[in-house]
């Protein structure tokens, strides 16, 4: 796990850490599109350590909200970033060059079908991931808050 000057711990997965580094170094010019999929950088507060942790994730849009699927590659356990944001829903995002605070929550049972369609169309592998695990893959809604440059703070 890398610890940049800002004290945020990046993903311990080497290819994800490389993706994050390129994203940061170029202000999102490299890394915002990963293949043909849009990605963002999500920073959460560790639920046990209290430290800030950053990862890169494919995202979708629903009006002014950002959508994530906590797929963990179809594993039978939730990814750490999802467990972190359920504990502390105040997160930070970088989408291309834009950095801002957001509030995260899991989509309700009523919201999920429509939002799942958005994400499954964007990244069809989510359907395969869901079929391969007994857990329901959480769909996360991120509602933007203030720009970090305008005084928003990662929490």
From TrEMBL:
It holds the Pfam family F420H2_quin_red. One of its GO terms (molecular function) is coenzyme F420 binding. It catalyses: oxidized coenzyme F420-(gamma-L-Glu)(n) + a quinol + H(+) = reduced coenzyme F420-(gamma-L-Glu)(n) + a quinone. InterPro entries: F420H2_quin_Rdtase (IPR004378), Split_barrel_FMN-bd (IPR012349). It comes from the Bacteria. One of its GO terms (cellular component) is plasma membrane. Belongs to the F420H(2)-dependent quinone reductase family. PANTHER family: F420H(2)-DEPENDENT QUINONE REDUCTASE RV1261C. This is Deazaflavin-dependent oxidoreductase, nitroreductase family. The lineage of its organism: Bacteria, Bacillati, Actinomycetota, Actinomycetes, Streptosporangiales.
């Amino acid at each position: 796990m890398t610890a940049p000057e800002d004290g945020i711990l990046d993903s311990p997965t080497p290819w994800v850490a490389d993706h994050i580094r390129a994203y940061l170094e170029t202000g999102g010019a490299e890394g915002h599109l990963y293949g043909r999929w849009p990605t963002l950088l999500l920073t959460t507060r560790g639920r046990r350590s209290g430290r800030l942790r950053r990862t890169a994730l494919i995202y979708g849009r629903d009006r002014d909200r950002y959508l994530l699927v906590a797929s963990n590659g179809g594993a039978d356990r939730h990814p750490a970033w999802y467990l972190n944001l359920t504990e502390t829903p105040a997160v930070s995002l970088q989408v291309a060059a834009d950095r801002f605070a957001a509030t995260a929550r899991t989509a309700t049972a009523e919201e999920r079908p429509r939002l799942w369609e958005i994400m499954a169309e964007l990244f069809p592998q989510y359907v395969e991931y869901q079929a391969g695990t007994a857990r329901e893959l959480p769909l996360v809604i991120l509602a933007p808050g203030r720009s970090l440059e305008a005084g928003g703070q990662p929490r």
